[in-house]
Write a structure and sequence with these properties.
four-stranded antiparallel beta sheet, globular, seven-stranded mixed beta sheet, 18 strands, binds zinc ion, alpha/beta, 2 domains, Gyrase A, domain 2, 23% strand
Length: 377
């Protein structure tokens, strides 16, 4: 174990910040940090959804190790989909826990309350914009709507304040919401404004903590989608009964994506159906691949008991979810994630004391925190 006081670290997880947003926004502060430190095109964990990636980054581990493969899971006893919000789903210690054990205090700032429920137990400061405490409101004002770009500004203002006023906190983790990316493509004015606002705050954070190491990444990208398929209804209309189909992207905040996503976990009524259902699903327009539980677990490092009998991968423009009809054309401007096409995200590291390892060390978003743990613990 390293007994020297570790360098202060700031983990910036920009939700939905695909590599295309990084390329197409100006981002003078972030890009100068990238030039000074390390930057590369990295990959998100599959499925490309918030929980699997957030937990991977916060545990420095694959989903096969920490167990979180979804935002929403099929609860066998009730036969319904439930939101994954309890910390006991996470099977390995978080970095906040591991840092606390070596005397490093952490702060967790997030937009969504679910992140706090999953990860907030070991931190000395915990803020969720969705459910702020009265103390947070009295110091920083009431947060703007969860369905706004301004909520990210509110959150980052707190981060800058903590970096200025709480040097005793050795690890600050900030996670924005992806609502702006759901609403606007990387070239749209509102997106450019949103990214410029975040970049200005990143610059302030850097100025407030010139001693700190900054790790910057995302949980997934975002793409336009044109059609949604309800796999259960499509199967039923062809005489195939599925036990369940769950969209792992679904969470409580569904105004902007209606709980759809580019991947589906399908549960069969019987093992014997495996071949026939696989063949049928593979024939659907919009389905790119159908993997068995074992194939998907191996290929994507998932925990087999926490995915479906089948894992169905959408093509670039398709999402899956529960609909009134079997299929629906989505309106223009509908953006979402979950598929293999939202894997590319930026990896940026800046301000490290000492020599950086070669950029080959970093492939996945959580390789950043894996390296951080390696240097501190
Ligand atoms: Zn996300």
């Amino acid at each position: 174990m390293n007994h020297r006081k570790p360098q202060r670290a700031v983990i910036c997880l920009y939700d939905g910040f695909g590599y295309d947003y990084y390329e197409r926004s100006q981002l003078p502060a972030m890009k100068s940090m990238a030039a000074e430190g390390m930057e590369k095109r990295g990959r998100a964990v599959f499925p490309t959804l918030t929980n699997a990636n957030t937990i991977s980054v916060c545990c420095a581990a694959w989903p096969s190790e920490h167990g979180v493969t979804t935002n929403c899971y099929f609860d066998e006893p009730s036969g319904t989909a439930k939101f994954l919000e309890k910390s006991d789903f996470i099977l390995v210690p978080t970095i906040f826990q591991r840092f606390r054990e070596v005397g490093v205090r952490s702060a967790l700032l997030t937009c969504k309350a679910k992140t706090l429920k999953l990860l907030g137990e070991e931190t000395v400061v915990s803020v969720a914009a969705e459910e702020p405490t009265p103390e947070v409101v009295s110091r920083y004002g009431a947060p703007p709507s969860m369905y706004s770009a301004e909520v990210n500004q509110w959150l980052w203002t707190i981060a800058v304040d903590l970096l200025k006023t709480r040097p005793d906190i050795g690890l600050v983790y900030i996670q924005t919401t992806d609502y702006p990316m759901h609403m606007w493509g990387p070239d749209e004015t509102q997106s450019l404004d949103h990214m410029a606002m975040l970049d200005g705050l990143l610059e302030e954070a850097r100025a407030a903590a010139p001693d700190a190491l900054f790790l910057i990444t995302a949980d997934h990208g975002m793409n336009f989608k044109t059609r949604c398929l309800d796999l259960r209804k499509i199967c039923a209309s062809h005489g195939i009964g599925l036990r369940f189909a769950v969209s792992p992207v679904a969470d409580r905040l569904v105004v902007h994506h209606r709980g759809f996503g580019g991947v589906s976990y399908v549960y069969l009524t019987s093992e014997r159906e495996l071949t026939a259902v696989t063949k049928f699903l593979r024939g659907l327009v919009g389905v790119e691949e159908v993997l068995s539980r074992r194939e998907a677990a191996e290929r994507f490092h998932l925990m087999p008991e926490r995915i479906g009998d089948l894992v169905v991968l959408a093509d670039r423009s398709t999402v899956f979810g529960d609909l009134e009809a079997a299929a629906e054309e989505l309106g223009p401007g509908y953006r979402n994630h979950g598929s293999l096409y939202e894997e590319e995200i930026p990896l940026i590291l800046c301000g490290a004391d000492g020599i950086l390892p070669s950029s080959e060390t970093f492939v996945m978003n959580f390789d950043l925190t894996r390296w951080l743990c390696h240097t501190v613990l």
